[in-house]
């Protein structure tokens, strides 16, 4: 049986655990699951859907921070019966996740591998895994750990019951394959939808219209809170300001575990070789008796004699052994190297020789300083000489950026505006050479995605290891491409103003004043991490006051290190003058909008970092205020028993206590904490409101004494509460940070999942008279800058306010400036109250493309993808027209040409009024927006759209492994020549002459991309797909056959079939791939 191991993530300055995946034909075993593990698997095309068991070296967030998100993804893909194994507190940590995970049909089993439990080993048909415990040098720590291990109390049973409630009763692993799991997932989704309708979650209006949903969600929330409060009014946890009377009891208390687990993994025994000659000599004819002998059974021969396996089958070979070591600090070295479970691999003797020959490889997962400790080096050298050593240590592994797809797009848009879009920091050189640890041909540095084949023969496979380019190299390439594009301005491709502005963007500087707002989106995706966007996180750094974090999805700490710089400041960040340590130490407020995992799973590691870094400061130590739903505070209190996160220095203010509507009288402690928070950050106002997404979902408004104001929507449908929050006070929002999960054509998805479309977000900004709108939280299906449409913006209605865009559009002075007098504000209220009509979102048409039509004849515009076009010239024309529309309408695009021609003057007037009063920008990961940057964004949006999409387009082609030579790659930097050659090709085709292969190939490649986009959108629309197998004729531009073909062109023609095969393969797999894009 073949099997191998693969390094998913080595230990670097950015990540502090080593993730290893062990591959068998039918299953996988994952060792450590730190934050970002799931995104790394997407990046490197590593399938984790077959993971049946997870093993954790430590029960802390460095080793298990990515586990909750991974379990959610595996559960939603239909995987069942997963086993999670680790040290003490594992059950406690999983039980704490009950506040935001409910996958009761997953059947998770939890195995705490305690040091005092002789039966703690893991066994199945493939592996035998033995844990090896190590403790810090303090003997008291080990004694305390063993004392806790021996305790089996009612408290542990309570935790097990809560794990069962969240994940279901333990089941056998499901290795039935992705197809059957997909069917099971589909059935589950249908049952959930039926159950949701039965419960009336959306109210009586199945169309999920605004007022009905708003009222219904708030009623459900209030009813649940009241019921829980009555039920637990007499519990000890009901008193105090921890809010547990509303949420139920906390978990029984525990203390953090100091144990570190290494693992000795032994593979399956390799059956002996069948001796055919011996079987023939014994009179056995070929047939099924051979198989029975191979499997270890005795058989009866033709002569009636019993034949045993030992007579014709050679001796079995013991299974190969892999050791995965975890030594987090030098304090653990003595305990680790003295553990007797390693003795058979180190000492000489006949009884140990067999075990030593089985050992193939050791993965050293080492913390800072361990690789340079002489005690550990001497111990590692004692292993047999044939053993391979893979070293994962922050001093020896370069801190490269493994997310090359995001880096490539980031570099492309940074070449347009490197003030706003920040290159992430990374390093291609290690701190120390590998020889400082060990020398020899069997010593290797851990690399992303490196494969080490164990059976049938040990072999190192680095073919899957990605080439990790530096930000400098990416940026240099992007700048060269940008300059080539700017040279085309003489043909009208790029305006002169953009060319002059961006010709030397690297020299641009922008000094941030002490009073200016700088809002930095760190993660801008939704649901799950993707190749181009991580999940939600935003920061505000206020000079002289401190920092604010608005939502904190998984991997926020890792992205902050690259964005701000660690261990030294990121020189590419021109807006925030702090490095990572400086920002974390200055952090004053953590805000969590709601309890969905993509908004808060990174908070534990952030709090851990804050706790550890601020301990180094002089007394008195600073405090941090958490503003969040009550359930988040309950989770934090539970998880603080697993890892020290400085709970004694955390102040909590419930979002409910800060509501501007129906706010109950806050208790004195809450008022005191709120006032202290305002004083520390220089805030004059902080308030929240309920929004329409899920129970305990809130929007936020903060106002600073320097004059700026930020409103953050969290996740929501357009709702009255948020508009009221934005209109409150004497100042409109300086920036509205609003989610725009779906493009306008996915309005049904937005309604069903209680999110906002792009045009609806623009309408919300107009309804508040916001000065700037920053769009974020995009669906992972949205690859580029999305569009908004004027008509859709004007159509958005809300109860009490009517057409909310009119709040801004109908108030103009003659010179086009804002008008905000008291009398006009009163008139606004009167006009708003007259518009009580409820918007029916499902009346909006959603185009469903039929791919059975000829691609070349399709002229439908895409909102989050390229236009479906007919030839290269038309492609340029459509792109230029799209960018012109974008520049004049802040990203809007009206694809109905008849409406545009008949209402041109009206539309232009409305677009001008919108543009005069609202700047709209689209956030990318690791960007920084000051108030003055929104105007520059509008000026650069054409180049940004073009740069981002060209990079993504090339990635799409590369992922499909379409044959592209240099001419294709140069298409984005040599478009002028392509213009002329395409025209020549068309002329040649008309006269019956030879059409050059390159032009046929370019055309086919273009239509190939269009076909992919059509399929993608059809999956997004959840339509009934009829996907035919296609040929060159269906691609719309067959290559004319004649006698002038050369041998080279004949060869290249055969390569072109790769395009066709890619599309056929895509038609089979695309639906399955995009199943994971759905919101949980």
Strand order of the largest sheet: 6-5-4-3-2-1-16-17
For the secondary structure, the number of strands is 32
Could you tell me the mean pLDDT?
Answer: 76
Largest sheet: 8 strands, mixed
Structure, described:
By secondary structure, this protein is α/β, with parallel strands linked by helices. About 40% of the residues lie in helices and about 15% in strands. It is built from 36 helices and 32 strands. The strands form six sheets. The protein has an eight-stranded mixed beta sheet. Strands 7-8-9-12-13-14-15 form a seven-stranded mixed beta sheet. It is globular. The C terminus is likely disordered.
How would you summarize the topology of this molecule?
Layout: E1 3-9, E2 19-23, E3 28-31, H1 37-43, E4 51-55, H2 61-64, H3 67-76, E5 83-86, H4 90-96, E6 109-112, E7 122-123, E8 128-134, H5 139-149, H6 154-167, H7 178-199, H8 210-231, H9 244-247, E9 260-266, H10 276-281, H11 288-294, E10 299-300, E11 306-307, E12 321-327, H12 333-337, H13 350-358, E13 359-366, H14 374-381, E14 388-392, H15 404-414, E15 443-445, E16 451-455, E17 459-461, H16 471-486, H17 496-502, E18 518-523, E19 537-542, E20 546-552, H18 556-564, H19 580-586, E21 587-591, H20 603-614, E22 624-628, H21 630-639, E23 650-654, H22 668-681, E24 683-690, E25 698-704, E26 709-712, H23 720-727, E27 735-739, H24 747-752, H25 758-768, E28 772-776, H26 790-795, E29 797-798, E30 802-803, H27 806-809, H28 822-833, H29 872-888, H30 897-902, H31 904-917, E31 919-922, E32 929-930, H32 933-959, H33 966-969, H34 975-990, H35 997-1021, H36 1047-1075
Parallel strand pairs: 3-4, 4-5, 5-6, 12-13, 13-14, 14-15, 20-21, 21-22, 22-23, 26-27, 27-28, 28-31
Antiparallel strand pairs: 1-2, 1-16, 2-3, 7-8, 8-9, 9-12, 10-11, 16-17, 18-19, 18-32, 19-20, 24-25, 25-26, 29-30
